[in-house]
Design goal:
The complex is a heterodimer of chains A (360) and B (307). Chain A is an alpha+beta fold. Chain A has helices spanning 42-50, 92-102, 107-120, 136-148, 166-183, 194-200, 218-223, 228-233; strands at 4-13, 16-26, 31-35, 57-62, 65-66, 77-80, 154-158, 186-191, 203-208, 211-216, 240-243, 246-250, 253-257, 263-269, 279-283, 288-290, 296-305, 309-316, 321-327, 337-342, 348-351, 356-358. Chain B has two domains: 2-52, no CATH class; 74-306, MetI-like (MetI-like fold). Chain B is flat, with a radius of gyration of 25 Å. Chain A binds chain B through residues 50-52, 71-74, 77-79, 81-83, 85-89, 98-99, 102-103, 146, 150, and chain B through 199, 201-202, 204-212, 215, 219-220, 223-224.
């Protein structure tokens, strides 16, 4: 178990910069998730920590050792690849033993560790099969087993769930959480799936366009996003964004007037906002309720009944669409006129540079 | 039919559908041209050749049926023995060396990047597109006992110029070397295709597993490239058993009886001596040798890979 420190790490492929001056510390035993869309640099960052990509600038430390000049095997990390990268011609047992044989671990010790890992991951009955004879989920577990037997200082997971079907993905996600609780080893998990990030992470690193947008706990990321990108990327359905006609002040708090002339009192201190008054209003669907007393009205375009709640896509008089929430047994139908109640206290404002301002 | 009877769990209509008449017709139409061509150009001549081998007959025209006499004659024929062992010797000298060299070169080329890789690959492949006459001229000139550019080197080792193609012990090894040089491009190409088929992630996993370069080759690359190796070995084996052109050209004017291969014996019996029946007999034996060797080799090598 060790902490991982990145100091001003950068990387370019030819003229293209893929990582720019990234610094962060991943605590010992922490479950850190790198979250971002395709091509944001999250996998490259992980591969740089693993030693599979060189860095062009900065330093990487694992524990008390600087590792960026060391070959992958000497960094003390184990990695699970997106496509598992199992050795196709070796059995499950051989796949798990191979790395230990390379460092001349005694045979008995190898057998002991492989047996323990196979038991933990329920692979005992598959131990003499080859990867081609296993299902996707089983291969996934073998890949994890191969990492576990090496007893690494940190685990690196590169989108390990993306090749599994939805049901298996949800189950495996829970297994990852249990694995981390049991091993208490530092883990870095790369994903583009915000649900995986929210459910697994101690902290999330949200990346976009080769840079870190925000580092924080899942709830910090969700309730106090640092930028419009983070606000839009995290949360499903996505946050509503509405143009602001006019920004005013009431008792030190910002009041926004929406294009349909309705006014909403936010919980955000006016003094913190940019002086040009140019902002966009953002609010999550769960903070917009369908309510008879609502101040804003519109027409329901689409109604999604999810069981425990209902989502209504409501078109306002200025043609902007707001996703609002109603109870599970909602009686609204497509085409109905509905009234919406905005909980301004949990809303956000974004300036022209997409910097976010949240209440509190 | 019994499969239909026993498979009671499969509903009958679903079964029937599998043999839709239109589909069968379409399938037949698609395979028919090939079957016709194959039958006319391969099956029929092969059967004719086997039939001819039981006759004392000229190359064209009728002959007399003599049963297995040609085969009996063949096993007593000294020239057949020479041709057989020359062919086997040539196969031994070419097949494995060509395969291993091609693998080594492919691994090297595969490590190069961009235009450098294309250039080097092209250099190795160019000989393969040369016709045998050009290969003969080029190497004949290089080894020429008076003016050959390689003779100073040979003189350095042997003390004097050596007429390589007129020195029996050197003949086969030299022709084998030239053959490997000539045909290796194709094998390299097959190996490169095989090497590119191995996911880079597997090598990354191996790097994280702390695998040394040698172990990476013996435990990962070699087993994963094994099916291609089997293919290359088998193609080589078949091709080299049929050796004719190079040996014929380089041996022409020398003691061709001593350097003769099996195909050359067929050529001489059938076309030069107009003994079609005997030529067909040698051809049948060569055909059987190739079938047995290649099937055996393929099966044995594949079994090893699957272990």
């Amino acid at each position: 178990m060790a902490d991982i420190r990145l100091v001003n790490v950068s990387k370019h492929f030819g003229q293209v910069r893929v990582i720019e001056n990234v610094s962060m510390t991943i605590g010992s035993g922490e479950f850190m998730v790198f979250l971002g869309p395709s091509g944001c640099g999250k996998s490259t960052l992980l591969r740089m920590i693993a030693g599979l990509e060189d860095i062009d600038g900065g330093e990487i430390h694992i524990g008390d050792r600087r590792v960026d000049e060391l070959p992958p095997a000497e960094r003390g990390v184990a990695m699970v690849f997106q496509n598992y990268a199992l050795y196709p011609h070796m059995t499950v047992r051989e796949n798990m033993s191979f790395g230990l044989q390379n460092i001349r671990t005694p045979k008995q010790e190898i057998a002991k560790r492989v047996a323990a890992a196979a038991k933990t991951l329920e692979l005992e009955h598959l131990i003499d099969r080859k990867p081609g004879q296993l299902s996707g989920g089983q291969r996934q577990r073998v890949a994890i087993g191969r990492a576990i037997v090496r007893d690494p200082k940190a685990f690196l997971f590169d989108e390990p769930l993306s090749n599994l079907d939805a049901g298996l993905r949800a189950r495996t996600r829970i297994e990852f959480a249990q694995l981390h609780q049991r091993l208490k080893t530092t883990m870095i998990f790369v994903t583009h799936d915000q649900i995986e990030a929210m459910t697994l992470a101690d902290r999330i690193v949200v990346m976009n366009n080769r840079k870190i947008e925000q580092i924080g706990t899942p709830m910090e990321i969700y309730s106090r996003p640092a930028s419009r990108f983070v606000a839009a990327f995290v949360g499903s359905p996505s946050m509503n964004f509405l143009a602001v006609q006019q920004l005013s002040d009431r008792d030190g708090k910002a009041v926004v007037r929406l294009p349909d002339n309705s006014e909403i009192l936010t919980g955000i201190a006016s003094s913190r906002l940019p002086s040009d008054g140019q902002v966009t209003f953002g609010i999550r669907p769960e903070s917009v309720k369908v309510s008879a007393n609502g101040a804003v009205s519109g027409k329901a375009d689409v109604v999604e009944r999810l069981g425990e709640r209902t989502l209504a896509y409501v078109r306002l008089s200025d043609n902007s669409v707001v996703i609002a929430e109603d109870e599970g047994q909602s009686r609204i139908n497509v085409g109905d006129q509905v009234k919406l109640d905005f909980d301004g206290a949990s809303s956000h404002l974004f300036d022209v540079r997409d910097v976010a301002y949240s209440a509190g | 039919m019994s499969a239909t009877d026993t498979a009671t769990d499969v509903p009958l209509p679903a079964r029937k559908k599998r043999f839709n008449r239109n589909e069968v017709l379409a399938a037949l139409i698609f395979v028919l041209p090939f079957v016709v061509v194959y039958a006319v150009l391969f099956i029929y001549p092969t059967l004719q050749m086997i039939w001819l081998s039981f006759h004392k007959a000229p190359l064209i025209g009728p002959g007399t049926f003599i049963g297995l006499d040609n085969y009996a004659k063949l096993f007593k024929d000294k020239l057949f023995g020479v041709a057989f062992w020359n062919t086997v010797y040539f196969v031994v000298l070419t097949v494995v060396p060509a395969t291993l060299t091609a693998l080594a070169i492919a691994i090297g080329v595969n490590r190069l990047k961009g235009w450098m890789q294309s250039l080097i690959l092209a250099c190795f492949f160019i000989p393969y597109i040369l016709p045998v006459s050009v290969v003969f001229r080029v190497w004949g000139w290089m080894f020429d006992s008076q003016f050959g550019v390689l003779q100073p080197l040979i003189a350095l080792v042997a003390g004097d110029n050596v007429p390589v193609f007129r020195t029996l012990p050197l003949f086969m090894p030299t022709v084998a070397f030239i053959t490997v040089w000539w045909t290796i491009g194709f094998n390299i190409l097959l190996f490169i295709a095989g090497l590119r088929n191995i996911s880079p992630e597997i090598y990354e996993a191996a790097a994280l597993d702390g695998t040394s370069k040698w172990r990476q080759f013996t435990r990962i690359t070699w087993p994963l490239i094994w099916p291609v190796t089997v293919l290359v070995l088998t193609i080589q084996l078949i091709a080299q058993f049929k050796i004719f052109d190079q040996v014929y050209l380089f041996g022409n004017g020398g003691r061709s009886d001593a350097t003769m291969g099996l195909v050359q014996l067929i050529y001489r019996s059938a076309f030069q001596k107009n003994n079609g029946g005997y030529g067909a007999t040698v051809a049948v034996v060569l055909f059987l040798i190739i079938v047995v060797f290649s099937v055996l080799q393929f099966q044995m090598l594949r079994a090893r890979g699957e272990k």
